């Protein structure tokens, strides 16, 4: 019986384990390309721009309030998506904030209890100052207002026209099928 168990154990295991072999020709080609400067390196690769909010100092010629180094307040480029963080767990820091639940602002390093408080915070003076914005908004010119109204009315009419076209197409399809 002892011999049967030892023979049975010899066959147990994974059959597809083998030592990894490297394709020397492929890596020699890569080394030659790198030496010639034709291979894309870390510095020449395209950098992915994150949507993370960080402090951005105002440009030299940026419009801002008189006597202030901060830029005028501007609209967000990305939509706030609080729904994406529902049900996720994030490790913050090992201090008092990590014991509390809720939202955490990495810019201001503060914890907030719920999404309403978080939205109030990111639209508030303290947070926007840390990002480099003043609470003042740039004054619009008459031409900017006219252009904005024209684009809004154009969007409205384009939507209504496409909606009517879709309704007509649906009606024609129903008429053909019956």
UniProtKB/TrEMBL annotation:
Keyword entries, A-Z: Metal-binding, Nucleus, Zinc, Zinc-finger
Species: Peronospora belbahrii
GO terms under biological process: mRNA splicing, via spliceosome
GO molecular function annotations of the record: nucleic acid binding; zinc ion binding
Signal peptide stretch: none
The protein's name: U1-type domain-containing protein
Domain U1-type intervals: 100-134
SUPFAM superfamilies: beta-beta-alpha zinc fingers
Any GO CC annotation of this UniProt entry: spliceosomal complex
Pfam families to which the protein is assigned, alphabetical: zf-met
InterPro entries in the record: Matrin/U1-like-C_Znf_C2H2, Snu23, Znf_C2H2_sf, Znf_C2H2_type
Keyword Zinc belongs to the record: yes
